[in-house]
Design goal:
This protein is an alpha/beta fold. The protein has 2 domains: 218 residues, 5'-nuclease (Rossmann fold); 71 residues, DNA polymerase, domain 1. 46% of the residues lie in helices and 11% in strands. β5 and β6 form a beta hairpin. The longest helix has 17 residues. The C terminus is likely disordered.
């Protein structure tokens, strides 16, 4: 992290974390039978991230039920993904309720994915708070295209407890490319998780090799005569697929959201309303941790870093 960056910004992909929590934790319910495993996992991850990064600016970004602009580009985009289980769908409103009582901005925009909203907020912070380092919490590799000296992606790697910090070095180690090449990488290799192909016949390894040599997709097409015949032919045959893939992979940095930098200022946990919420949904272990933290703060006058283990 750049020593000149004295503040932290935390952007959390709420939808991705809720999904991960639901599948990582066994089913359990509140006292009235409401399913709460995804809610519990999200709150645990949220509090752990806040405790770890101590943000000055904070937002949770969410998907919306409406189709995104990518669906208009490719009708089969993400079509292979199964419908969310009912017990998972029931918990998204609870997560939104938690954000409201905690005074945490939950930001979504119909027609766009949470990734696009995070990209837009990342741009907003970089322009307005240049001394802030941005940490983006998500399991979606699309967001790796945003990594730079001031942006690190925090990726859960197992369950909801263990994470990888993805800076430029980590991205290169994982994919063999620079973060600025992630869109071109997906342009060539496609993305099975989002159900779109790039250039048929070019997989991840070949994509990284070509980009290492030529830098960009545009430059690759300028040097087709230098590339092995079967790969060059595939690039010609599936050029339209590549154009579509690039449009799908590129995150939007200018989503029209009604959010200012002041809206993202984090002033700490609002436990007065949070505690009744936790009690309502029988999240006893989190409730006890928050109460213990309040007691510690009241006793010492300040909170010690990492005094509670939320992970």
């Amino acid at each position: 992290m750049d020593k000149n960056r004295t503040k932290n910004t935390l952007l959390i992909d709420g939808s991705a974390i809720v999904h991960r929590a639901y599948h990582a934790l066994p089913p359990f319910t509140s006292s009235d039978g409401t399913p709460t495993n995804a809610l519990y996992g999200f709150i645990t991850m949220f509090l752990g991230m806040v405790d770890m990064f101590r943000p000055s600016y904070l937002a949770v970004c969410l998907d919306t039920p409406k189709p995104t602009f990518r669906k208009k580009i490719l009708s089969t985009y993400q079509a292979q993904r199964p419908k969310a289980p009912e017990n998972l769908s029931l918990q998204f409103p609870l997560v939104i309720e938690f954000l409201k009582v905690s005074h945490i901005p939950g930001i979504a925009k119909a027609g766009f994915e949470a990734d696009d909203v995070m990209a837009t907020l990342s741009e907003l912070v970089q322009k307005n708070v240049p001394d802030s380092h941005i940490y983006i919490v998500t399991g979606d590799k699309d967001i790796l295209q945003l990594v730079n000296d001031g942006v690190t992606v925090v990726m859960p790697k197992s369950g909801i407890r263990n994470v990888d910090l993805m800076d430029s070095t980590a991205v290169y180690k994982k994919l063999g490319i620079q973060p600025s090449q992630v869109v071109d990488y997906k342009t060539l290799a496609g993305d099975p998780s989002d159900n779109y192909s790039g250039v048929t016949g070019i997989g991840p390894k070949k994509a990284s090799t070509l980009l290492s040599r030529y830098g960009t997709v545009e430059n690759i097409y300028k040097h087709l005569n230098e590339i092995e015949v079967n790969i060059a032919q595939a690039l010609k045959t599936y050029e339209n697929n590549a154009l579509i893939a690039k449009e799908l992979a590129q995150l939007k940095m200018n989503v029209a959201i009604d959010t200012s930098i002041q809206d993202l200022i984090y002033t700490g946990l609002h436990t007065e309303q949070m505690l009744p919420f936790l009690h309502k949904y029988t999240l006893k272990s989190i409730e006890k941790r928050i109460m213990a933290e309040k007691s510690e703060v009241n006793t010492s006058g300040k909170k010690q870093k990492n005094q509670l283990s939320f992970f």
